[in-house]
Amino acid sequence: MIKKNVVITGAGSGLGASLAKKYSGLGFHICLLGRTRERLQRTAEMLTDDYSIYELDVSKKNEVTEVFQSIKAEVGPIDILINNAGIGVFDLAENIKEDAVHQMIDINLKGTIFCTQAVLPDMKNRNEGIISNIVSTAGLEGKVTESVYCACKFGVRGFSDSLFLELQDSQVKIYAAYMGGMKTEFWDGIYQKDEIKDLMDPDDIADIIMDNMKPRKNLSVKEIVIKNKI
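RESULT FIELD:
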């Protein structure tokens, strides 16, 4: 049996690490992508099967192209791409610095587009594959102090919806997850630990996402919304 390959961006912590751990338990080869090797290595230590680590800044198109070419050459075709990398800087709209605006748009939106572009030709050629965009409920509704973050996530929503239409006559599937806040390092420097203690567990979110991405006869799940119950 040929081992399937899953590529996860932002795999160094949080939901990305949870997804990596769970897919590893199912026997997938895990390609861990992120900007910091130390954090990726920390995730790798939790895995039960083989893996590869690739340092990558998803906002840089040339880097994305090179890394995904390396994955194809060294590991094989990509069966699942999970666009999970993201960053948030929160403040009133007029206070968000220019660098923060560029960073959020570059990573959250352009990074998702670049990584998707890197896998689409081969997936289309093989007529199989899954692209999962980890979006956030910020892609569904505006939020106070999250104006630019929401703008990026609304962009990913539009990109996902359009891809769904482009791919509807193929066996390449697009999936979008809109989830609320989780207990992860995403909130470091924004909230104290006691302020996020009632947020969702990323392991639970990973289970829900993976279950909804499973191939099923005569149906496909386009998107799912997961909200905090607090």
